[in-house]
Write a structure and sequence with these properties.
The structure is a homodimer. Chain A is α/β, with parallel strands linked by helices. Chain A folds into two domains: 4-122 and 275-350, FAD/NAD(P)-binding domain (3-Layer(bba) Sandwich), CATH 3.50.50.60; 128-272 and 361-420, FAD/NAD(P)-binding domain (3-Layer(bba) Sandwich). Chain A is built from twelve helices and 24 strands. In chain A, the strands form eight sheets. Chain A has a five-stranded parallel β-sheet with strand order 5-2-1-9-20. Chain A has a four-stranded parallel β-sheet with strand order 13-12-11-17. A three-stranded antiparallel β-sheet of chain A has the order 6-7-8. In chain A, strand 22 (361-366) and strand 23 form a beta hairpin. The radius of gyration of chain A is 23 Å and the shape is globular. Mean pLDDT of chain A is 87; it is low at 6-13 and 427-437. The interface between A and B is large, with 58 and 58 residues.
């Protein structure tokens, strides 16, 4: 079969060596960028037309930022490289014999080298039916859904005459005590308090509840213990009810069963563990390490010379033998490394193995509070929060978005207002049980 | 039946005179604002939680601005008035005997005076089935749909190998030569040219088509003839194919029949005439002037002492006897007038009748080009465009949004980039015919 490029670009002088990258997240984009201007054709396949800055997605879900503030069209990011071609399409298989990526629309793209960078999705541990009631936080669509549901619950709470229903509507449950769960719980609590004190004067603060459920004994298990203690104390100070060692055994439209007790809730968010997207299934490698594909020190997938994987999709051992964490900075560094490697594929055997350079791990807990773990030293509180804000603005892709986000943060900090509190009437159907609409 | 307020706010000292306003558009908000701090209770009912700055909605549809940039939560706008209560609910009838507004959820709200400010919706002239394929431009949902469809058509056009299909995908049809149609046609043409020259290098500019269809002999019929001629010339210069005196007789997923000829198109936008929302039906007054409710010089609905209507919902005669146009500035001035009137309802008989103060009529045609008609004098071209931008930024409700929009416009003007080019994978289903997905 002909490469799809040959058909779409019939006038181009093909064939040149063609690297295909599936997924334009942090890893895929870094890899493509490092291949820009190289003597290869690069095809980047993604089912979305934008790269999402996921670390700030929770701010979209809590009405602080707009979707476009944290999303950058892939064509803009990679537009300056004339050897890079973008395809809006969904991959759903790999034919390793004929070296083609199979697309959902029936087409196929031929590769010489393939990079699988499809990222991760939330793991509902066998209860995929919970996803409807407890969205995760991976896409703009999910973030918007959470935002609608949060805001709508307040509107309905003000109109209801039934105290039990009001209490249920004003209860949010966040499942999972990792960074996403902690950030969401903190942000929901602050959003609720600010709305109750300004916009909804008839809603008593005492009716607001945010419950953070963690099955393990500690929140933020990847951080040193004194930072965990600090975060826990801060969350409790801003009104988050943290339930450690508690299991969620069922989730419905009405609420969640936490440690055996049914807690009615207007809003449930899922942040409990991720699994790799289905790419491992394409290679018959499912079942290992939450579906993550094992790769060697040069990011090659076991058993293949021409297939590579990086970021959350794969699992690689660090210098100390432990698997590298599923973090944006790992994906970015791997992408950059792999791009350079693929540009000079002939020298791969003598190339240096990938080395992860830890830039520090961070989580934000609330207004004025964040934690940083740099390995040798740590930081917490107000200074950490300032540093967190600077780092995240810096990491946003382009200058315009940096300015916009900075401006909105400063404004928000000074006024405590949130700008993106929108409920669209066409998005209302799926967010509340029929009885509460 | 008890006023809903009595139940929702049992502790309040009721009854006080209660003014109910249905609709929080320009007119409803102005009316509520003028009643702020007055000795009445005010209930504002809207099915959305935000006021939309519709004059800039076309910029959301063409990926220049984000939804939140032009939408303001009603609770923020009116939050400072403690006598104003906001209800997110959909009205669907009026019981004039018991003086209650009936809500879709089965509840009711009692009024002493009622203001109907429900605005207008697009008139498909008996072909409501066209709405699916040719959305109007009244809500954020519609603007997002148009944006997705526009951007997706480009992605698909790059991937297709069939020249006829590519040409169809790159064809946009705008129905209606009023201000909305002209603004959309100009903005789509400029968006297309900028995307073809930067983001989609394999798409030839010659394949782009924007067709503006107007059934009458002229575009912008409300403007003086020399401004119409200028606008027509400018549109043709930026590549818009303007078809005057042409009827659209059918619209399907595949395209539109224009003057008897089927034109395949990837994107169709409806801007051909509006009609009042169903409020006139609630009062048994349908069938007049496109469903607009006739009101007297004090905005009273004929036959009722306690029901008022303003803005696009109603029709009032101006000083010269001709009906006032359906413009934001009319609604705002009427709202302000009516609020003052309702604050002192006892003096309504001796109050001055409403007088419309024409602030000038404007339309923007493209980058660097707008027209203004101030009655006695007119303005066109670059200066008009600068004035248009200043006026629209000034009219945006709050300071933060003014800054954000100004900043984005300046950035966009300098770089010709559009920041909000997002396609969400969950919104894709309904925007393209199955064959083109």
């Amino acid at each position: 079969m002909m490469n799809v490029l040959e058909k779409a670009y019939p006038a181009r002088a093909l064939p040149r060596r063609c690297v295909v990258i599936i997924g334009a997240g942090f890893g895929g984009l870094a890899c493509a960028g490092a291949l820009g201007h190289a003597e290869v054709d690069v095809v980047v396949i993604d089912r979305r037309n934008h790269n999402l800055f996921q670390p700030l997605l929770y701010q979209v879900a809590t009405a602080a930022l707009s979707p476009a503030d944290i999303a950058e069209p892939i064509r803009r990011t990679l537009g300056r490289y004339r050897n890079i071609h973008i395809m809006l399409a969904e991959a759903d298989g790999i034919d390793t014999q004929t070296k083609r990526v199979m697309l959902k629309d029936g087409n196929a793209v031929a590769y010489d080298q393939l990079v699988i960078a499809t990222g991760s999705e939330y793991n509902y541990f066998g209860h995929d039916e919970w996803q409807r009631f407890a969205p995760g936080l991976k896409t703009l669509h999910e973030a918007r859904r959470i935002r609608h549901r949060l805001l709508l619950a307040f509107e309905k709470a003000e109109q209801t005459k039934d105290p039990a229903e009001r209490r249920a509507l004003l209860t949010s449950i966040v499942v999972g005590g990792g960074p996403t769960g902690v950030e969401m719980a903190g942000a929901i609590s602050e959003l609720g308090r600010s709305m109750a004190s300004r916009d909804f004067r008839t809603i008593p603060l005492s009716d607001l509840r945010v419950i953070l459920v963690e099955a393990g004994p500690r929140i933020l298990s990847a951080f040193p213990e004194h930072l965990q203690t600090y975060a826990l104390g801060y969350l409790e100070k801003i009104g988050v009810d943290v339930r450690l060692g508690a299991q969620v055994s069922d989730i419905t439209m009405e609420g969640a069963v936490i440690a055996g007790e049914m807690v009615p809730a207007g809003n449930i968010v899922w942040g409990a563990g991720v699994k790799a997207s289905p790419a491992s299934r394409w290679l018959g490698l499912e079942g290992k390490a939450n579906g993550r594909i094992p790769v060697d020190s040069k990011l090659r997938v076991e058993g293949y010379e021409d297939i590579f994987s990086l970021g959350d999709t794969s699992v690689q051992s660090g210098d100390n033998g432990a698997p590298l964490p599923a973090l944006a900075q790992v994906a970015k560094q791997q992408g950059h490394y792999l791009g350079k490697l693929l540009a000079k594929i002939d020298t791969i055997e003598i190339a240096k193995p990938f080395h992860f350079n830890n830039r520090g791990n961070t989580a934000v807990i609330g207004r004025n509070a964040a934690i940083f773990d740099f390995g040798r030293w740590t930081l917490k509180g107000y200074l950490a929060w300032i540093l967190w804000a600077i780092v995240h603005v810096y990491l946003l892709v382009n200058f315009e978005k940096r300015m916009l986000v900075t401006l909105q943060w400063i404004w928000r900090y000074l006024t405590r207002q949130r700008g993106a509190r929108l409920i669209d009437e066409n998005d209302r159907e799926d967010v509340l049980p029929a009885a509460r609409r």
